[in-house]
Design goal:
Order of helices and strands: HH
Structural class: mainly alpha
Number of strands: 0
Number of helices: 2
Oligomer: single chain
Radius of gyration: 31 Å
Strand content: under 5%
Distance between the termini: 91 Å
Length: 76
C-alpha cells in the first residue's frame, strides 16, 4: 500500500496521464515557476525577521531651526 491506500501502480498511471495531457515541457515550466514562487516566499519570510529601519547609534545631526516669516500680511 502507498499513500492513503493508493498503490504505486495507481500513482504511476496518474503520472502517465498527466504527462500525456500536459507534456513534459509544460510540466517543466510549471515546476520551475512553483520553485521560484517558493523561493520568493521563503526570502520574504526571512526578510520579515530583519528590522525595516536599522538603528545607527552615535550619529547626530547638527541643525539650527530658523523662524520663517510670511511675505503676505494677514487679514483679520
Amino acid at each position: 500500500m502507498g499513500l492513503g491506500g493508493i498503490s504505486i501502480w495507481q500513482l504511476a498511471i496518474i503520472l502517465l496521464i498527466v504527462i500525456l495531457l500536459f507534456g513534459t515541457k509544460r510540466l517543466k515550466g510549471i515546476g520551475s515557476d512553483v520553485g521560484e514562487a517558493i523561493k520568493g516566499f521563503r526570502k520574504s519570510m526571512n526578510d520579515d525577521d530583519k528590522p525595516a529601519v536599522e538603528d545607527k547609534q552615535g550619529e547626530t545631526l547638527d541643525v539650527q531651526a530658523e523662524k520663517k516669516t510670511e511675505s503676505t500680511p494677514h487679514k483679520d
